[in-house]
């Protein structure tokens, strides 16, 4: 999983005008008796939800914020309760419910001033579910799409700035996945399949730290496939952009050994 942003809680809390909160650990079990249906006035109910959240009883808080909306749907507190419910589920690491709550808010209040917060929260929920490169990267792609959406919709906000940083990390992660698969194919002697993976890194993730190795792997792959001209092109790009890299040194030695006619004197 990728590292969480240290500004996360401050950004999320500030977006709703709430006091700064510490997420804490999720409450145990399912729906608490605190969230059982008891008709209460909106001020008391909302205060109870916020008290639970401050105490780190995040699942109870989420259920109580849901009750604010259910019992008082036309109250001015209902809209804020929707957002705080989403944040509480997020703090409890119940990402699916957090996403659902934020999406529900956006479907009802698409032009609301707190919409950027809701979009950002959805993106963060996907981002924090990113798994290591040995697993399926569906969630990684969802995180990238959601972060890109935040940047597109609200380019001048602090959310967009944080989203940009996270997209760079997401791209590095996706490139790492391609490299892992490519190396695996290479080890099995599946050179064409391997070069396709390394080519994808060059074409789509060229700003990541995986690019020098990907270029070297292309040199390896093209030489093994018997196309030294393509190997020479990859080596030339490596020389032009990463002349001090160990990968260029290795590529040069390979070209001298297996395709000396393609190496400049």
Q: What share of the residues does DSSP label as strand, in percent?
A: under 5%
Shape: elongated
SS elements, strand count: 0
> In CATH terms, what is the architecture of the domain at 1-129?
Alpha Horseshoe
* Number of separate helices: 12
Structural class: mainly alpha
Distance between the termini: 47 Å
CATH superfamily placement of the domain at 1-129: Tetratricopeptide repeat domain
Largest sheet: none
Question: What are the low-pLDDT stretches, counting only 5+ consecutive residues below 50?
Answer: 3-33
Measured on Cα atoms, how large is the radius of gyration? 25 Å
Q: Quaternary arrangement of the chains shown?
A: single chain
Secondary structure layout plus pairing:
Blueprint: H1 8-16, H2 42-54, H3 58-71, H4 76-91, H5 95-108, H6 115-127, H7 138-153, H8 158-187, H9 191-204, H10 211-224, H11 228-241, H12 246-258
In brief:
With 265 residues, the protein is mostly helical. The relative contact order is 0.07. The chain contains twelve helices and no strands.
């Amino acid at each position: 999983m990728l590292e969480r942003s240290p500004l996360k809680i401050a950004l999320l809390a500030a977006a709703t005008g709430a006091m700064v909160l510490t997420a804490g650990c999720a409450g145990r079990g399912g729906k608490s008796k605190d969230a059982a249906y008891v008709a209460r006035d909106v001020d008391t109910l909302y205060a109870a939800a916020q008290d639970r959240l401050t105490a780190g009883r995040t699942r109870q808080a989420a259920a109580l914020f849901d009750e604010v909306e259910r019992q008082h749907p036309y109250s001015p507190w209902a809209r804020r309760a929707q957002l705080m419910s989403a944040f509480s589920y997020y703090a409890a690491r119940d990402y699916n419910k957090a996403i659902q709550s934020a999406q529900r808010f956006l479907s009802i209040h698409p032009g609301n001033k707190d919409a950027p917060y809701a979009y950002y929260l959805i993106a963060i929920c996907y981002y924090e579910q990113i798994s290591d490169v040995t697993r399926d990267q569906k969630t990684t792609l969802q995180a990238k799409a959601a972060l890109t959406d935040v940047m597109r919709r609200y380019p001048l906000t602090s959310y967009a700035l944080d989203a940009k940083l996270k997209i760079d990390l997401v791209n590095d992660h996706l490139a790492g996945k391609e490299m892992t698969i490519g190396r695996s194919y290479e080890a099995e002697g599946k050179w064409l399949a391997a070069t396709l993976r390394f080519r994808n890194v060059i074409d789509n993730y060229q700003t990541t730290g995986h690019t020098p190795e990907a270029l070297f792997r292309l040199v390896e792959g093209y030489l093994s496939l018997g196309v030294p001209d393509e190997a020479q092109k990859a080596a030339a790009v490596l020389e032009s952009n990463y002349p001090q890299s160990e990968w260029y040194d290795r590529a040069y030695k390979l070209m001298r050994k297996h395709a000396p006619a393609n190496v400049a004197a």
